[in-house]
Amino acid sequence: MVMMVLIVGGGKVGTHLASILLGEGYRVKVIELQREEIPRLQRDLPAEVVIRGNGTDPNVLEAAGIRQADVVAAVTGADETNLVVAGLARFEFHVPRVIARVNNPKNAWLFIPEMGVDVALNQADLMAHLIAEEMSLGDMMTLLKLRKGQYSLVEEKVDPTAIAVGKALRDLQLPSECQLAAIIRKGQLLIPHGDTVLQPADEVLAVVHASQVAQLAAILGPQEGTSRDNQKR
Q1: Last residue of a domain, one of 77, 94, 126
Q2: Confidence class of residue 192 from pLDDT cuts 50, 70 and 90?
Q3: Helix (H, G, I), strand (E, B), or coil: what is residue 207?
Q4: CATH at 188
Q5: How far is it between the farthest Cα atoms of the chain?
Q6: What mean pLDDT, rounded, does the chain reach?
């Protein structure tokens, strides 16, 4: 069964989101209030996808098919509008999943499940967390976020100076919420076992809780006080 996504807000964010979802095969409807935006939307998207109307009007939402929607994404440029749409979607129409864009970070505290929001897209907050995470991870790469970002699938190449080098996995004090999924060694895929000994340049794939990613990076990456410049010397 093809999932349906109803997007309220046909600006750049809404248009781009709709284009991606349509390309993935989802059924999509976009509601936009501003009359002058409709010609642009109809150039960028199939005409049948675009609906002119007020996304805070229950009648407009119903006409757009909100009762069949699996997801509602409120991505207008006004936080108050996004909150009203989220509340209607959740409490009036019982949509299973509601996503709302946060424009002003000071309003982020309002975008909570009690207001109908399952996932709040706070761009400033996401960027700050991403920068902080990347600064702490060294060469570790995040491949995928799971469970609303609670867990990550990460990849890191074992540094020659890492405390993990030459040790069996059973002897490593891995984070409590971390599971090694695979090791790639010289192009060969290895399934990790307790007696698997890590070697320099092993590529490790792991699923780890967000709060313990830095701990895993410290085990697989260079030891504290050791830089790559020192290694080269």
Answers
A1: 126
A2: very high
A3: strand
A4: 3.30.70.1450
A5: 70
A6: 89
Is pLDDT of 226 > 80?
A: no
84 with 186, same domain: the answer is no
- Contact criterion met (CB below 8 Å) for 85 and 110: no
Contacts of 220 (CB under 8 A, 6+ apart): 140, 156, 157, 158, 159, 162, 164, 198, 204
What is d(CA 182, CA 200) in angstroms, rounded to the nearest whole number?
15
Can you state the percent helix, strand and coil of the chain, rounding each to 5?
40, 25, 35
Give alpha helix (H) positions in 36-164: 38-44, 58-63, 79-87, 123-137
Residue 143: name the closest of 205, 229, 209 by CA: 205
Mean pLDDT, residues 36-52: 94
The tokens for 125 are 């907050």
Please report whether residue 91 resides in a domain: yes
